Structures are given as structure tokens and as C-alpha cells.
Amino acid sequence: MNPFKTQKGFYKILVMFIVAISIPAITIGYLGIRNSTTHIIRQVDKSSNFLLLEKKLFIEQQMSEIENVMKQIMASDEVWKMFEPNVTYATRSQTMVEVIKYFNKLVGTNKMITSIYLINKEEDYVITDSKYSLNDFYDQDILRTDPRGIFTVLQPRKVIMLNGIQRNLLSTVRTFKDVSSNAAMQIVVNMDYRDFLSSLQTSENPKPMDLLIFNDNNQIIVNNTGIEQELLQKELTIIRNAEGSSLQHTINDSTYFMSKTHSDLLGWSVVYEQPFEQVVDSTKLLRNVLIYSLLIVLLLSFVMAYLFSYFLYRPLARLVSDIRKRMKIGKGRDEYTLIDGAVNTLFQENHTLQSQFGLAFPFMKQHSVFELLSGKVWDDEKFHAIVQLLGKSFDMSRFVVGVFDFENKELTDSLIEKVELFFDERFQATLHSSMSERRLVIIVNTELEKDDIYELFGELKETLNEADVEITLAISPVFESLDKLFLAYQEALQLLNRKFFIGKNEMIVKETVDVTESNGRFYDKNLEETLLDSIRSQNLEKSMEVVSDLVRMLASQPYSIAYVKYAIFQVCTNIIGALAEVGGRLEEAGIDGPSIWNSVQSADTLAELEQLLIRFISQSMNVTADLKHKQHTELVGKTMEFIQRHYHLDLSLKDVSTNVYLSPGYLSSIFKMETGMTILDYITQVRMEEAVKLIMSSDAKIQDVALAVGYNNTQSFIRLFKKAYKMTPLEYRRKIILT
Fold first, then answer.
1. Are residues 679 and 597 in the same domain?
2. What CATH number does residue 694 fall under?
3. Pair (539, 486) in one structural domain
4. Among the listed residues 640, 571, 557, 565, the one whose alpha carbon sits nearest the alpha carbon of residue 603
5. What are 571-582's pLDDT values in tens digits?
6. Where in this chain does the record put each HTH araC/xylS-type domain (predicted)?
7. Which of 1, 379, 433, 605 is the most exposed place for a label (fewest CB within 10 A)?
8. For 347-370, how does the pLDDT look when each residue is reduced to its tens digit (9 = 90+)?
9. Domains in the chain, number
């Protein structure tokens, strides 16, 4: 027996089941694919960045070792002898031989290094495994290179050696000078480029990683991605400046997933490139599962529609037929409307409407005021209808909009009632709207003049302050036509934005906001330089003056809040960079860019930014003081070591200061401050101590002892010895013999 009188009901139920089952299935499948793709990308990004961090640290370690080798070369006596002027040819040749031996020793003990050059362009020679003139040197590319900065890593290049073998070299170049002669040389340390690439591969995966390494000047150091270098060159700036640790980027119609990191130590960006399709390939399986699932859902829908019609729809059809007979309603109305009409009564509907109106009235009131402030086309008739509905009377001639920010308390019904009562007691009609948890907008209809209106709002502020409520309020200009309501509200909001410059718990009106024209100027960079100089010189008073001038300048210009915060952060960042360049240990002082950025962004007023900058300057001065003390200690140690090795020579203050590359006067002041004695006193002290050793351990004549410790004049030696030990050298020797 056919369970359906007609097929109409069956098709309704079939469509209902298909929609009810298919839509959730499609939605779940879509979200599953999307979330799976996102999860896969996140996991790939996480693992890739972990691997990149490992590679970055390895590269930094390698480059640090290379730089240490360069510093070791610069500190060697053999290299510095090359700066000595007016030496004989034989001496210079012997020195070059020693340098070549020294270079060969370094190359032999360091497997990363293939060769070392010492280039002196002024004297026309290159020293490596031998001495070459500039024209005869086999690596002409390095001579044409103009390295940027003191320490530079060049792009890989091919070099044909003297034996005819071609090698790919990755070179680091460092320039150093002799202060006394101002002569300059370049040290070039060469690594085998293929060995460098091999060191970057993981032991678990023999396949080379698709790595791209380039510096901040967009010079490609390593390109192992398979993408043409010319195409990559155009994309380097986009890749480096992309936010986050990864990006999805299209190059020449191919999409790649790139994980990246940056070495601040080297100024290099390290990128791991993978084809995007390869990354998300596993989601294809999920997509196929979704398609088969939908087919199964459709089949189930047919089966369930048949069963539902057979067991449930026939009883429902009988119920609808009975309702039609009892209510004497003919065909034409659907079953659900009939059932709903039978269940509900007019009294219940009326009661429900009244209850809902009571609940909805506060929200309708809020929405009505909000709509008035929204800037839509003005409808005067609609406005008066809203005012009448809200039980208000707006029949006075002037209007004003006030925007209140409650600074220390959230907006509550009691606070709103208190504000309304304040205006009602003074016969001022108001409409209000709560725009957020702490912001209230009030439209006031009044006959008061402008100054009286300001006084009225000032009295309200004092009343709330006495109740321990801090508010910042902005008052729009007075207007007489309600079609200007939206513009007045917008002007009040703009005035409230000046809270950042004026401060919290203030009343802001147009007449009190003093903004001069900026003419497109940015903040004065000279103030930043002056501030940095005062930090270096430990002049706290001058620093406070510069900070005050900077803040006053930013407040006097019509800058946005975002720009003011950027300017303060930029000043801090530039100071951090300057201190880091001279070796300041910023981390130990708790100074880092991200924490300063967060502090700047969380500041609510310009005064808070000023205090933040003052605290930062105090920390920076501590870093500078520690740095100076460390530098002074190292200089004094080098000076003492030099004197102890050369006390037997005719030393002068100029000789000592030349050794540490400082002026005699500046070195004397540092030495006196750190040791409590002058350099000449220390020379005398060392000489006297050595003289005592000679007097005690030998029978040398006093004249010979004087010459041995650096005195050509025996009488001067005897006088200084007697001053130090209260007796002559002979008396001291006799005393030692007797005791």
C-alpha cells in the first residue's frame, strides 16, 4: 500500500532531510579542510622556524668564528709590523714571510677557511700564500670590491686559482687602520662556498634544504631554492618586510610557503622555501572524504524521508485534517500555520507583546538616540516622534552635545540617573546614550548662553569628582538646528581625542584647545641628537630639559596620537641602536625594543609617555656609565702591561698613550681616576720594584742597575730611590746584607 496520498509531502520531507543533513556535513567538512590546512601550515611554520633558528645560530657561530679569526689577525704583532714606516727592505721581507707563515698556520688549523688575504692598496701588494702586486694577483674580483662598513660578507664568486682549479668562494672582508699613520689594510678570509652550503644541511635529510639567505642590502648570499636569482632579486624587500615568521608568496605564477628569520648579528635574512601545494597536499584526502560523505548523506536522506513519511507524516496529516474540520478552515493554509493558530490565543499574544515591549523599551530608547547620532538623513518629524515616545520635551532654542569618558569607574544605571537628575533639577532637557562601558553621550536642549553651558558642565564634573568619579568630558559648540546634530557629535568626539595631550579628568571645549599649524614638519631630530649627547655625558639635568622640549613640541603640533607614540618609540629605538653600537649591554639593564613598544602603545596620555621616556633615559645612563667604567678598566690594564714590559726603555707619556691610541691628557685623567696615581708615578714604582730585585739578587753596580731599569742619569735614579725607600741604593744593599 502506498503510504502517500500525493508525493508533495514526501518531497517536502526529502528536501528537509537533505538540507538538515547536507548543510552541517558540508559546513563541518569545509571547516575541517580549512582548519586542517591552517593546522598543517602552522605545524610546518613551527617546525620550519625551529629548523631556521638552528641554522641561524649555526651561521652566526660560523661568522663569529671568522670574525674572531680576523680579530686575532689584527691583534698579531706580525701584521702590525707591516704598518711600521721607514724599515729596510730586508726587514719588510722578513715580516711578510712571518705573515705568510702565520696565515698558513691559521688556514691549516681552521677547516672552514681556505685562504686569507692581506691587501694594502696604498703600497700595492697582497699577501696570502705569497706576496703579489695588485696587478698580478689572481683574485682580481676582490680588489674591485668596495665593502660596506668595517665587516662585510660578500656574495659568492668564482675564482680561478694559480693551479687552474676553479673554486667558489664566500669571502668576509674587514678593514682596519693604524691610528698613528692612518694607513689602511683589508683582511679577507675565504671559505669554500660548497662546504658552507653542506654545513647547512641536516644529517637526517640528505636532500639539500631550499634555503635563501640575503643581507639587508638585498645581496643574495645563498640561493638553494631552484628559483632564478633574477626573479628572487625583485622579491627580497617584500619577503624581508613581511609581517610574522612566514608568508605565502607568488613568484612567476608559482606559490611558495616561506618561513623566515632574521639575524640581527649579521644583518641577514634566512628563508626556507617550500612549494605551497606540497605543504597542503595532505588536505586533498580530506576533500575526497567530504565528497563521498555527501553522496552517502543524500542516500540516507532518501531512506529517512521514506521512513519518516510512513511512520510520522500520516498521523500528522490526520491531525491537520481534524483541525480544518473543527476550525472550519478550507484548504490553502499549510499544516504548521494551522497548528500554530490552534495552540496560541489572542490573549496570550497580547500578553506576550506587552511583556516584550516592557523589556525592549530601554533598548529601543538606546537605539533611538544612537540613530539620531548616526549621521543618516535628518527627519525632523521622526525626531519629535522619538522625543515624545521617550517622554521628553525639546522646545528650547539651543542644543549642545557632551561626550563623557568615565576614567575610573564603569558606567552604571545609578551614574546615568545621577547625571539625568543633575540636568532635570536645573530644568535642562536631555537625551542620553551609552556608547560603551565607560562612554556616555548626552544631547542637552537649553536656553543658556555658551559660557553658562560650560559652567553647567563644569559644575557636573565637580559633582561627580566629589563622588570619587573621574570623568573627561568634551563639549561641542552650541548649535540651534537639530540637523547639525551629527556634525556637533563628531566635533565633540574630535575634541575628546585631545585627551591624550591634555590629560584625563578634564573638560575639553573648542576654545581651550590650542593647536598650531605644523606645515608638515616632523619632530626635531636635533633634539634627539642632543638627548643622546647628554646621555653619553651623564648630564641628567640636560636630558630632562630635552625631554621637556620634545614633549612640548609634539603637543603643540596637530599630530595624531599614533604619530606621537611612533616618535617617542623612534627616539628610544635610535638611542638603543647608538648604545648597542658602542658595546652597551642593554639586556642587563632591562632595555629591549618589544617591551618599550608595548609600554608606549599602552600609554593613555602624553604625560605617561614623558615619564616612560624619563625612565628609559635613566636606564640608558646606567648602561653608559657601566660601559665607560669597563672601557677605562681595560685601557688602564693595557697601559700597566705596556709599562711593565718596557720600563727599561726611556719611556715618555706620549710613548705610553700612543700604544693605546689615546691622547696623553685623556689617558692621564683615566689612569689617575682608576688607580689614584699618575702614569709617571706608576713608571717610577715599577722601575723601583725592579731595581730592588737587581740590588738584592746581584752585585751589579748602582750605575748598571739604573741603566737596567731605564735611567740614564744615575743621580736621578738615586734621588727617586731614596724618595721611595728613605735610603740610597747602597744603603739598601748593606741593610739587606746585614739582615
1. no
2. 1.10.10.60
3. no
4. 565
5. 787 777 777 666
6. 637-735
7. 1
8. 565 666 566 555 555 555 666 666
9. 4
Placement of cell 711578510 in the chain = 96
Residues 450 and 393 reside in one and the same domain:
yes
Same domain? For 592 and 692 the reply is no
Residue 501 forms beta bridges with which residues? none
Which contiguous run of DSSP H or E holds residue 201?
none
Report yes or no on 352 lying in a domain: no
Q: How far apart are CA 278 and CA 285, in angstroms?
A: 13
Tell me, what CATH number does 86's domain have?
3.30.450.20
**Residues 608 and 660 occupy one common structural domain:** no
CB 122 within 8 A of CB 184: yes
Residue of 412, 446, 411 lying closest to 431 (CA atoms): 446
Range of the domain at 425: 358-512
**What tens digit of pLDDT does each residue of 468-491 get?**
889 989 898 888 887 788 788 888
Give the tens place of pLDDT for each residue, 265-278: 777 888 888 887 77
- Picking from 59, 113, 61, the residue whose alpha carbon sits closest to that of residue 271 is 59
Distance, in Å, from the CA atom of 421 to the CA atom of 423, rounded to the nearest integer, reads: 5
Q: How many residues does the chain have?
A: 739
- CA 449 to chain CA centroid, Å, is 51
Sort residue 186 into left (φ over 0), alpha (ψ -120 to 50) or beta: beta
Angle among Cα 553, 559, 562 to the nearest 5 degrees reads: 115
pLDDT for the residue numbered 365: 61
Give the separation between CA 627 and CA 670, rounded to whole angstroms: 14
- Does 637 map to a domain? no
Q: What is the amino acid identity at position 15?
A: V
Identify whether 519 is part of a domain: no
Q: With beta carbons less than 8 A apart as the criterion, state whether 524 and 566 touch.
A: no
Q: Are residues 505 and 580 in the same domain?
A: no
Pairing of strands 471-475, 507-508: parallel
> Could you tell me what percent of the chain has a pLDDT over 90?
1
615 and 498 within one domain: no
Question: Are residues 556 and 500 located together in one domain of the fold?
Answer: no
Amino acid in the structure at residue 674:
E
d(CA 556, CA 562): 15
Residue 640 is assigned to a structural domain of this protein: no
Collapsing DSSP states into helix, strand and coil, what is residue 287? helix
Q: Which of 512, 542, 576 is the last residue of a domain?
A: 512
**Interstrand relation of 131-132 and 151-153 (parallel, antiparallel or unpaired):** unpaired
CATH classification of the domain holding 440: 3.30.70.270
- pLDDT score, position 539: 74
Q: How far is CA 710 from CA 57, 713, 728, in A?
A: 52, 9, 17
User: What Cα–Cα distance (Å) separates residue 68 from each residue in 62, 106, 266?
Assistant: 10, 12, 14
- Report the C-alpha gap between 255 and 274 in whole angstroms: 9
DSSP E strands, 669-712: none
Say how far apart CA 537 and CA 545 lie, in whole Å: 14
DSSP codes joined into one string, 715-726: HHHHHHHHHHHS
Domain boundary among 477, 512, 547: 512
